[in-house]
Amino acid sequence: MDPTMDTMIPVATAQVGPSDRFLAATHEVLNQPTELANYNLYATDRALREAVAREGAGADEAGLLEFGERIGTAEYLELGQLANRYAPEFEPHDRFGRRTDLVRFHPAYHALMRTAIAEGLHASPWSEPGAGAHVARAARYYLHAQVEAGHGCPITMTFAAIPSLRLQPDLAALWEPKITSRAYDPSNRPAHEKQGVTVGMAMTEKQGGSDVRANTTRAYPVSSTGPGQPYQLVGHKFFVSAPMCDLFLVLAQAPGGLTCFLLPRWRPDGSKNPMQLQRLKRKMGNVSNASAETELRGALAWMVGEEGRGVRTIIEMVAMTRFDCMIGSSAGMRMAATQALHHCGQRSAFGRLLIDQPLMKNVLADLALESEAALVLTMRIARALDHRAEEHEDLLARLCTAVGKYWICKRTPQHAAEAMECIGGSGVMEDSPMPRLFRETPVNAIWEGSGNIQCLDALRAIRKTPAVVQAYFDEVARARGGHASLDRHVGQLKAEVRDSPDIEYRARGLVDRMATILQAALLVQHAPTWVADAFCRSRLDGDGHHQFGALPANLEFDRILERAKPEVR
Ligand SMILES: Cc1cc2nc3c(=O)[nH]c(=O)nc-3n(C[C@H](O)[C@H](O)[C@H](O)COP(=O)(O)OP(=O)(O)OC[C@H]3O[C@@H](n4cnc5c(N)ncnc54)[C@H](O)[C@@H]3O)c2cc1C
Q: Which phi and psi (to 5°) does residue 212 adopt?
């Protein structure tokens, strides 16, 4: 066919101008919002700024403003899309057949990792402890996780490994300088050749993830036995995320029971340590982050902490990863609410902007409330981590990390789905950030101790350290007199917390109530009264099966929305 044929087809419409004679203008794109980009993620987040000042990191305000600006550009936000569109690829061998166990990532993933490490998200409270260190890091992590969540996995594990590693001071002295370094080096070479390293964790096996006592991987001493000594590990691990990390904390059965070990990906002699990757998991979300199935074929590893006390040792790491799940899921909610608010602020239906339609105001305000409640609780626990030397703060962190991890991560999937619905059909499309936000949401709820495990952990804390209950009620008592519903519900909760033979059956209900009452107490103290009132009336006085968008009709919707809206230049 003549390639110029189409130019001979006459276009008979009056609108066709001289320059586009042969191409009919079908329509103008109307009533479609702009991309949410080129905005300062920090400056536009009032609740976050207030939390940073209140919880002790006000000195970092200027740094956070600069960071929020830098990561809010269209180019930077696109890194999140790219890192997930081009998933990591596994190359078990090189072209000559030599085993490499290499995972290749898109450059966008490396760019995100480089920023996170340069900003100290992987270590700053340990390398630069001091007033507000956890709060400042939590704020930065919260901002960066809004751009992309998957890279947060190795960042979190690296951050969280330090408290466990410090239980073995000789190993900590050897590795901590490289772990806390601000240099990101993704090259596939021995850690001793690198300036900066990252740390992963390998606990879960096929026969048990929550119950790691079922681990069958065995540890054989190389020569001497005991803490700090080298062993060889034989077995498998079913989930090893970020397998290109340089070091891993691993659980294995030593002669004296389940024990924690530090396993480098390369041996000190420069040869590959045989933690061999079998394949990468095919995950529904968390795509930018690789997660591998592995076999340990005599891999060299050093004992961390006491033999037979592996869970006790690695729980220090797990506690920190659980806290980061709170930050990550709070960040997911903030980005979902922001996307919905932005879209509805520009899209009209039935003659009015969606954000001005009463029922949509209700939905959006409810999403904003949930997001602020998640943040206020997360930042309160960040402050507790900064003040663990104080008994009240330590007890609060112990109980409320489990409570908060359970509740915030559990709320996120419904929240993301509702935000997606606010955007309508375009929200379901893969070129929107919403599918990625939505698919990310179940992950935080499942790993690092799934929902039931968090509830059982809260019960364990209550039984083993009853003082955590007093600390919890002391904390919520700070809001006493601030809202009548809150006072009433705190009174009822005191009766529910008492141990009884059926307490495991009702653990979820109990932890739900502990979380929402604590969030309410924090909002009553720190948020505008109209935010706190809306939260208390919907979350405490509601029927317990709250559907987003079913807030009481007489709330200050406009003020709630105004507070949450991102202002785009
Ligand atoms: C994307 C991804 C990455 C991961 N990366 C890593 C990693 O890097 N390193 C690592 O070690 N692991 C990793 N994991 C594994 C993860 O930690 C486990 O999947 C998780 O701990 C649950 O273990 P499991 O899958 O064996 O499920 P199970 O332990 O079989 O649990 C299944 C369900 O039973 C519930 N349950 C368990 N015990 C009880 C009980 N007593 N009462 C009531 N309910 C109970 C759990 O809450 C859960 O809902 C990853 C998982 C995912 C999804």
A: -75, -10
Q: Do residues 529 and 546 touch, judged by C-beta distance below 8 A? A: no
Between CA 363 and CA 549 the distance in angstroms is 4
528: Cβ below 6 Å to ligand 1? no
Q: List, in sequence order, every residue forming a beta bridge with 303; answer none if it has no partner.
A: 261
| Residue 161 near ligand 1, beta carbon < 6 Å | no
Pick the more confident residue, 72 or 543. 72
Across the chain, mean pLDDT equals 95
Closest C-alpha to ligand 1, atom 41: 453
Cα 486 to Cα 544: distance, rounded to the nearest angstrom: 15
Q: Is the CB of 241 under 6 A from ligand 1?
A: yes
Instruction: For 258-268, write each residue's pLDDT tens digit.
Output: 999 999 999 99
From the CB of 256, is ligand 1 less than 6 Å away? no
Round to whole Å and give the CA distance between 377 and 199.
27
CA of 454 to the centre of ligand 1 (A): 11
How far apart are alpha carbons 191 and 139 in whole angstroms?
30
Whether 435 is in the pocket of ligand 1, judged by its Cβ within 6 Å, is no
Does residue 212 line the site of ligand 1, with CB under 6 A?
A: no
Does 16 score more than 70 pLDDT?
Answer: no
Interacting residues of 307 by C-beta distance below 8 A, sequence separation 6+? 225, 226, 227, 254, 255, 256, 257, 259
